[in-house]
Amino acid sequence: MTGTSGDGSGLSARPRRYRPPGQGRAVYRIRLADDELAELREAAGRVQMSLSGYIAEAALTVARNTRPPTQTPWRDALVHLAEASAQLRRVGGNLNQLVARFHTVGEPPARLEEVLRIVLAHAERVERAADRTAAKLP
Question: Which InterPro entries does this UniProt record tie to the protein (predicted)?
Answer without folding.
Answer: NikA-like
